[in-house]
Every structure is written in structure tokens, then in C-alpha cells.
Amino acid sequence: MEFFTAILSITYQFGDAFAFLVISCAGLAVIFGMMGVINLAHGEFIMCGAYVTAATARAGLALPVAILCGALAAAAIGMVLERTVMRHLYHRPMDSIIATWGISLIATQGVLILLGPTMQGVGTPLGSMALGDRSYSLYRLVLFAAAVGLLGGLYLLFYHTRFGVIARATIQRPAMARALGVDTRRVYGLTFGLGAGLAGLAGGLYAPTMTMVPTMGATFIVESFVTVVVGGADIFLGAAPAAAILAIIKASLTAWYGQLFGQIGLLVAVIVVIRIMPGGLSAVVKRWQR
């Protein structure tokens, strides 16, 4: 029985870590992988989604609807920022890094001034189940299902819809897409808005599990970048397998040695991958496919 409980605990921690990595990195993978923009304001889009989710849930909306409101709010802000700021910085990576870093500082300090250092959150739904002397949150299982559903939804969007075909063509061959009559500016705006909306969705999904503070995006940003760097530019060939591998590393080290060693394991993994596979897992998979 004790062995079974230990295996279940590690499996549960793997699912929890996998969900966190996938959900938190999806928006970053879309913006960086498809557009080549290193978005240092990713954590602030997550914070926006969490704050809007908490506010609308306290106003009386059902939690799923509140999460959707958080994602839509972040997507709308992302599209506005793309039109006013980011559109002028494509193919200028250093400038885009500085701009998104500045946006992150403005957002964090703006929320701190307007809403204060903390905000009342929402409770974690669904309760928990006990097995032996351990308790497991059922909402974490929902997050794992949401991560799998998110990957499936993005795959269908980018590979089985007209928007997905046009978006991939615009990112890969913008001049050819323009010659064929595609409004590439509109596609860039929608793609950036999608990435921001996915970040807001991450914030909304994790809002019931976290304390609402202006700097909460920092909780996500490191592991998001680690997953994208290990996975490479392709969210399906790279980010998803990278999330699974990193989740195994984190869950195993956390179960045996504690949370600190789990975080150290992630950082060591990204150092090794950068040294051996600078293009990430997706670059290796694409070379094998050729």
C-alpha cells in the first residue's frame, strides 16, 4: 500500500507539473515560436487574466465564465499593444525585448498603485480527496485535463483551420503571403492576441490556486521560458515533449528531495539542452524528419 501511494503521489506531481508547464508556456510559445518575439511581459498577461478572473468571479459569474473573461481581456490588451508598440519592432529582437520589459514594469507598478499590493482571490473549487495520509486537490486534475485539451485545441486551430494555414504561411513567408492577398498585419495582430489570450487563460486557470499580487507573473515566467527554450520554436514538436520531460524531472526530484531540488533540476536541464541542442527538441525532430 505504501508503494502504491508513493507511485500515485509521483504520478500526481507529474500531472501537476506537466499542466503548469504546458498552460503557462503556451502563449509564450505561440508569440516566440511563430513570431520570433521574446515577450518579457508574458507574466503580466498572466497576471491580467488572473486579476480579471478573480474580479468577475467575485462579481457573481461562474468560474469557467470568469476564466474566459480573463483570457479575453488579456487577448484584447495584447492586440492593442501589438498595434501600438510591437508592430513597429518586428525583426528588431533587442528592441522588442526592451519594449516588453518596459511594458511588464509599467503593468506591475500600475496594478500596484491602482489596486494595492494584494487582491481578494477566489477559493479553489472541487475540494480534495484523501488517500492514506496524503490529500490531493481535485482541481489539479482539472488543470491537467485543461492542458491536454489546450494542446489538442491549438493543434486543430493551426493545422485544420483556414486561420491556422494563413497564420503559418504569414509567419514563414510573409512576402509571399502579402503577394497572395493576405492582410499580414491583421494576422500578426490576431496571432499576438492569441498568445496574450493564452497567457490570460493560464492566469485564469491558476487564479483559484494562488495569492493575487501584482508580481504573481514571476511565478510563471521562469518555467515558461525554460520549457520554450528546451522545446524550441515549435509548440507541438518541442514545447509539449519538453513539458513532459521537464515534468518528469521536476516530479521525481521533488518527490525524493523536495521542491528546491525540483527547481534546480529544471535549470540544469535547460543548461544541458542549450549546450547540446541549441535549437531545442523541435530542431532535432525536424532534422530526423528530413
TrEMBL record:
Annotated localization: Cell membrane
Gene Ontology biological process: amino acid transport
InterPro entries: ABC_transp_permease, BCAA_transport_permease
Name recorded for this polypeptide: Branched-chain amino acid ABC transporter permease
Family: Belongs to the binding-protein-dependent transport system permease family. LivHM subfamily.
Membrane-spanning segments: 18-41, 61-81, 93-116, 136-158, 187-206, 264-285
UniProt entry keywords in alphabetical sequence: Amino-acid transport, Cell membrane, Membrane, Transmembrane, Transmembrane helix, Transport
Membrane topology value: Multi-pass membrane protein
Gene Ontology CC terms: plasma membrane
Annotated organism of origin: Paracoccus liaowanqingii
Pfam families: BPD_transp_2
Chief localisation class: membrane
Molecular function GO labels: transmembrane transporter activity
